[in-house]
Amino acid sequence: MSDSISRRHFIGNTAAGTAAVGLGLSGLKALADSSPNNKVVVGVMGLSRGAALAAGFAKLPNVEVKYLCDVDSDRIPALSKRIEETSGKAPEGISDFRRILDDKSVDALVCAAPNHWHAPATILGCAAGKNVYVEKPCSHNPREGELMVAAARKHNRAVQMGSQRRSGVGLQEAIQKLHEGAIGRVYLARSWYTNARGSIGTGKVVDVPQHINYDLWQGPAPRRPYLDNVVHYNWHWRWHWGNGELGNNGVHTLDVCRWGLNVDFPTRVTSSGGRYHWQDDQETPDTHTVCFEFGDKGQITWEGLSCNKHRAGFVTFIGDNGTMEIDSNGSYIQYDKGDKVVGEGKGPNRGDDEHLANFVAAIRNDKPLELNAEIEKGYRSTLLCHLGNIAQRTGATLNCNPTNGHILDNEAAMELWGREYEPGWEPKI
Length: 429
Ligand SMILES: NC(=O)c1ccc[n+]([C@@H]2O[C@H](COP(=O)([O-])OP(=O)(O)OC[C@H]3O[C@@H](n4cnc5c(N)ncnc54)[C@H](O)[C@@H]3O)[C@@H](O)[C@H]2O)c1
What we know:
33% of the residues lie in helices and 19% in strands. Mean pLDDT is 93; it is low at 1-22. The protein has helices at 3-6, 16-19, 25-32, 49-58, 77-87, 98-102, 115-127, 142-155, 169-179, 214-218, 244-261, 352-364, 375-394, 411-414, and strands spanning 40-45, 63-69, 92-94, 108-111, 131-134, 159-161, 186-194, 268-274, 287-293, 299-305, 315-319, 322-326, 331-335, 341-346, 398-399. Helix 8 (142-155) runs antiparallel to helix 13 (375-394) and helix 11 (244-261) packs across helix 13 (375-394). The chain is α/β, with parallel strands linked by helices. It is built from 14 helices and 15 strands. Residues 45-49, 69-72, 75, 97, 112-115, 117, 135-136, 162, 164, 216-217, 219, 232-233, 248 line the site of nicotinamide-adenine-dinucleotide.
């Protein structure tokens, strides 16, 4: 139990109802389960996606966003003003997240920095006694995910991955129906992502802009010269820092597929695709199809198109007695065996606010495992992305140990299980 939590007393939840305006059912429940009189203090690291998270935390009852941390100083002032307008208090703008870890009054680190930061920051956070909300994919490689689970257990911290659909009321209802047998025995989950991304061109080595601390941006990743087409966002398409579209957006749908199908680790992973659209500096596939088999429990497929937005679904479950289509906001349509519509649900959202409320409730109640996307679940879904990418990069069909997902009899593929670190930044449990 952290100092800040152990000092606390639960003194009722009278403000819960008022405070939960705008949240869905599970958010209301999460808030009702925890006393908003019990203040939770967070520091947010990485302020692009982190800007939405900071705004989301700031509107929860008695949650203080004490720090806004970014290595790009341009990203702090406007957001700080916005948070002040919501909460009445301006957060402190900082560039080094270790200030958050050193502050005993902080309960949680929120990590929305690029993927190469997720595990090292989470592990340091847990060791400093902080709970951690870490964006998806939870790690840059499989070994880091295993270390994150170990760190959460060792320090008994709440670690939630930012796969917010786990907290969406529509999604929860749909998955419950599946688990109750609405379409019979479910044996296939199909998933998709499409976008119309532009080219990132060919990068030139240039001086680091004054407003960016590139050394801290790189952190645990071995040093590379500063290119003018990587920071911000385009690191997603370079293996040194990112995990391609599969890790960027595939993780959301694969998490839903794994949840609905009730499976953990795959037995076999195959991948095909490539970079077909732009000739530029991107390394990760823009067109990618991956199949994950789970022995006799069925199969998950994911198809990603980064550069052609032609309409596709989100997730479709196939069972021996029907079909269920689910969209990104948790609306669903249920079909019978004859493909006739027999049920539907209306979402209504992807669960962002509820997911933050669930994290705050776990901290307040000192129940670190009562998280909708607890790190062990988050890691298992993230692992599917890593395995899909490893299969793609090695051109091999991966056979995996169904108890832990480790790749069997393929040394070249297992080489990609972990990574090299910048000296001094190796994650340690
Ligand atoms: N759950 C979701 O729906 C969702 C949506 C978008 C992004 N994300 C995730 O959020 C993460 C960030 O993605 P993005 O699109 O915001 O990327 P981005 O590159 O646009 O922004 C990352 C930010 O982190 C900052 N940063 C880098 N190193 C830092 C450090 N050491 N300390 C503090 N700040 C640092 C960068 O300066 C930048 O402002 C990714 O892992 C992504 O997958 C999740």
